[in-house]
Amino acid sequence: MAGVAFGSFGDSFSLASLRAYLAEFISTLLFVFAGVGSAIAYAKLTSDAALDTPGLVAIAVCHGFALFVAVAIGANISGGHVNPAVTFGLAVGGQITLITGVFYWVAQLLGSTAACFLLKYVTGGLAVPTHSVAAQWRI
After folding, report:
1. Where are the transmembrane segments (predicted)?
2. Helix 15-45 to helix 53-74 angle, to the nearest 10 degrees?
3. Is the pLDDT higher at 18 or at 4?
């Protein structure tokens, strides 16, 4: 098992590292924009009606395709983490250094925040719908 590597600041500011941070920023931005945008679009199309099974599946498929595209964009550049939890796991597992992990987190959080601001602007301030799945599903 690999140990946790701290890394050095010099390696974290190389051209390849900066490209990786930009790739994480863009891929996370696209994932959040498409995923949350699909939920906003569905709520707009159905006039904020209750979420039904086809709507839930449509939103889930949009998230799946968005994740596929986001990982495909960043896979060869940064590893296509897209998610800070994935980055944390790789940092703890020693696959990336802790310093690189922190910069990836910053890029991912900035990407998701930028996507939310972009959605707010593009949709004219529509609210992000919240859905309760538990009320419709029984085991």
Report:
1. 20-43, 55-79, 85-107
2. 170
3. 18
* Angstrom distance (rounded) from CA 115 to CA 30: 7
**Alpha helices by DSSP H, the chain:** 9-12, 15-45, 53-74, 84-92, 98-122
The total of other beta-carbon atoms located within 10 Å of residue 66's CB is: 21
Rounded CA-CA distance 1/10 in Å is: 26
Find tokens 């390849």 and name the residue: 16
Q: What is the pTM of this model?
A: 0.86
**16-64 pLDDT, tens per residue?**
999 999 999 999 999 999 999 999 998 888 886 777 888 889 999 999 9
Which structural domain, as residue segments, surrounds residue 44?
Answer: 13-122
CATH code: domain of residue 32 = 1.20.1080.10
The total number of structural domains that make up the chain: 1
